[in-house]
Each structure stands twice: as structure tokens, then as C-alpha cells.
Amino acid sequence: MTRNIDNLHPEDGAIVPREQIPTAVTAGRLAYGDGTTQTFQPDGSTSYFETGRQTEGTWSVDENGRFCSFWPPTYQASYDLRWVVEGGAVVGLRFSDLRSGTCFDGRFQ
């Protein structure tokens, strides 16, 4: 279930604009291809669920309009965030790590 993005109509693969990143990531739980899931809250907190284990971190948008995450005690990452669109509807988000170039998709549950 997604919130607040049903009225958006971006193209598949389009960059999520800075002002839409908070709406995009908090729209619903994301499920990744490896079976993990993640939620993002409007207050900047995030929870990652992997094989019955939950870890807590934070997310933000930097001055360049990039999505950033922090996982204590020291892991930080920055991403280009893109829309995943199928049949004209937003179904997920694509994260492209700026450091490693690794990409992964999260689909809204």
C-alpha cells in the first residue's frame, strides 16, 4: 500500500526530485529482491528487516538532493533515487549507490 504518490506520474527510471524524496520513501514498506524489507518514517528514522532481525538507522536528503542513509555506528551511504514505474503506476524505488555504483530496487508492498 502506498501513500501520497498515487497522484504522481513520473516516467520509469526518472530521478526522484529533491522535494519528492520524503514523500517517495515514506509512501510504504519497500521489499527488496533478497527478501529484506524496509520502512522509512517522516521523522528521518528507518527500520530494516532481515531474517527476523531488525536494525535501525536514519535517512536524510543532502544539499545536492541525494538520498542518504546512516547505520550506526559508522556506515553512511548516498544514493541517486529513481522511480520504478509499471503500467503508469509507481511500484517502487531504485537506489544507485554513488560510491560503488551498485543498484537495487525496492518494491512497495
Overview of this protein structure:
- The structure is a single chain.
- The protein is built from one helix and eight strands.
- The protein is mainly β and 109 residues long.
- Strands 1-2-3-4-5-6-7-8 form an eight-stranded antiparallel β-barrel.
- The radius of gyration is 13 Å and the shape is globular.
Structure characteristics:
mainly beta, 5% helix, 109 residues
Set out the fold topology:
Elements: H1 21-25, E1 30-32, E2 37-40, E3 45-50, E4 53-61, E5 67-71, E6 75-86, E7 89-97, E8 103-108
Bin the helical content: under 10%
Strand order of the largest sheet: 1-2-3-4-5-6-7-8
Rg, alpha carbons: 13 Å
Cα end-to-end separation: 6 Å
Concise structural overview:
This protein has 109 residues and is mainly beta. The chain is built from one helix and eight strands.
